[in-house]
Amino acid sequence: MTKQLERIVNRLLSDAESEIRRAACGEGGDTGRILSNLMEEAEFRFMRGRRGTGIRPETLTRREAELREAFAVLEKEVGDRFALFRRRRTVALIEYPLLAATIGDGLRKRGIPFLLETRLDGNVLTVRVVSEYFLEIPVTLESADRTVGLVRYCILRPDLAHEEIPGIRRIRNHTLARTWNDRVSALSLSTYHH
Length: 194
Fold this sequence. Notes:
The protein is α+β, with helices and mostly antiparallel strands. It folds into two domains: about 5-90, no CATH class; about 90-190, no CATH class. It is built from six helices and four strands; from the N terminus they run H-H-H-E-E-E-H-H-E-H.
């Protein structure tokens, strides 16, 4: 496979990552369709839209062989990434009940309202900073205790939160701000919110 085709394949895989992730987590999409689209796009970009026109037969034969090699790489990579995201989703679902209990107990003792939910292939803790500003914190069983201990600090210093907790995101969400009190009060009735 040429360096040019390798760059095309890598770029296409990078662009399709979120679509593969959604498919693996059961949120629409199917890997057969994704793979078919990737192969079609790789061929179009590599052949520059000239399928057989103005290309010498020996060049066309070589390019077709390179495309077959690229298609095999695409098929393997899509399958591997799908399997990785599927495993992560399974782990997140298995961890959720214990996370809900651990985080729920810790944050309730501190009087911090929160939401905990499984999103695609990970568990995300959401806490309100002020008004329509929130922090979304990825949590695992390994990071749960440390995260609970740092939540108050992160709320008080959202500008420095990313230094303490990798992957934390500051978001602004008007819809969540309007429904926050209802969603949080529903959470206090049950330890497990999903």
